[in-house]
């Protein structure tokens, strides 16, 4: 199943690259800044067809389609293009994200950034890898020597304003905070040691499913902001190298979004 997920993510990545740099029109989804391109649609169609052909009984949750619920214990959770806004603006920070759960526990995860040909994957209890080389989170154990990454949702409501207050607070306590625009890669960059931590709210299952396992298998920690297990919904997520988890939780839990 891991090999199938890697091959499928790479196939979808090739479809994305055929369109990258050539997007001239797009649609809007939940808000005027929530974009949808032909690349999102074709990547997702490819992934769903591959799963239906190889695992016809499996349950599928994919961002751009209705749920295919076959009452199977196996559930695929798919973002065919994470980072659509970057993609539309020719910024090569985007990925295909494929997670596989068994009885609601993620057992296989693949995040593929085709523009850089970087494929991250993990298997439950099997470690995390980048293009076949094992990756690990950093050993940094203070917030003051950490670099963090975050993101913001498309809907600009009260939570959004509170999110900026948090951004300012954390900017003041760390070596900096970045906003790259592709949540699946934010997780992977924590896993490979570029960042010590990633927090965000208002995400969706397909943004977090694969990335969370990759961080855990690289030695990191993932949770909700109140320290309970990370919700499948992606409503509030914190992923760290584990050493700064407690310090970050103390700040994030002060005034829960
Ligand atoms: C988005 C990206 C972004 C995050 C948004 C997501 P999409 O996914 O992951 O980093 O801040 O909340 O919706 O729409 O490009 O698949
Ligand atoms: Ca996404
Ligand atoms: Ca997407």
Structure notes:
The protein is α+β, with helices and mostly antiparallel strands and about 260 residues long. It has 2 domains: about 1-135, 2-Layer Sandwich (Fructose-1,6-Bisphosphatase, Chain A, domain 1); about 145-255, D-Maltodextrin-Binding Protein, domain 2 (3-Layer(aba) Sandwich). About 35% of the residues lie in helices and about 25% in strands. The protein is built from 7 helices and 14 strands. The strands form 3 sheets. It has a 7-stranded mixed β-sheet, with helices on both faces. Helix 1 (about 1-20) runs antiparallel to helix 2 (about 40-55). The chain is globular and about 50 Å long. The model has no long low-confidence stretch (mean pLDDT about 95). The structure holds D-MYO-inositol-1-phosphate and calcium ion (2 copies). D-MYO-inositol-1-phosphate binds near residues 151, 181, 182, 203 and 207.
